[in-house]
Amino acid sequence: PADASMPGSVPRGRWAEAEAVYRDLTRLRPDHPDGLFGLAFALGEQGNWTSAEVEYRRVIEIDPDRREAHFNLAVACAAQGLLAEAESGFRHVVESRPDMPLALLRLAGCLAEQRKWDEAEHLYRRVAAVDPGSCEAHVNLGLVRRRLSDRSGAEAAFAAAASLRPKDAEDHLNVGYAMVELGRYGDAETMFR
């Protein structure tokens, strides 16, 4: 990569090469937070979440205020099924940045995985308020309402998701699932294409 300290500069799919560059950098400068962060990111992109977790913890030891390290550590923990640790990490990020939709979504998802439905619902509603165009927030709110046996609340959330005009494939998929939940199979088929 052009700048070994920035994971965004890594060409798509070349994470093993990036890992080697970051390992070289951290051998030369073991406490270089950007190098450690890049190494952790490259490891995570390759699915090596245990090693990524270790490196994110090292970054946080050096730079405890680095919010993206806390966020990515929480992602690494969630990927390993360490939900209590992931929840703690996402909460840390949300406390410092309460209007960050992605952190709110990930915290809500972590809570939903732990069946903490009421708090997950509250957070999905917060995301929908901060980012009304978030298909993910509306679909997941619908799923939580369904788990709480609130069919009309679930349908309202799925209908809100369906009313959005998604731009990317993942949003199309989420709205398609919402259409299935509403029994609108023709609309779901259109979204899945």
Please provide a written account of the structure.
There is one protein chain. The chain is elongated and about 60 Å long. It contains 11 helices and no strands. It is mainly alpha-helical. It has helices at 15-28, 33-45, 49-62, 67-79, 83-96, 101-113, 117-130, 135-147, 151-163, 169-181, 185-192.
Provide keyphrases for this structure.
193 residues, mainly alpha
Question: Secondary-structure map with pairings?
Answer:
Layout: H1 15-28, H2 33-45, H3 49-62, H4 67-79, H5 83-96, H6 101-113, H7 117-130, H8 135-147, H9 151-163, H10 169-181, H11 185-192
Number of helices: 11
Overall structural class, as computed from helix and strand content, comes to mainly alpha
Helix-strand pattern, N to C?
HHHHHHHHHHH
Biggest beta sheet summary = none
E-strand count: 0
| Whole-angstrom Rg | 19 Å
N-to-C terminal Cα separation, in Å? Answer: 36 Å
**So what's the overall shape?**
elongated
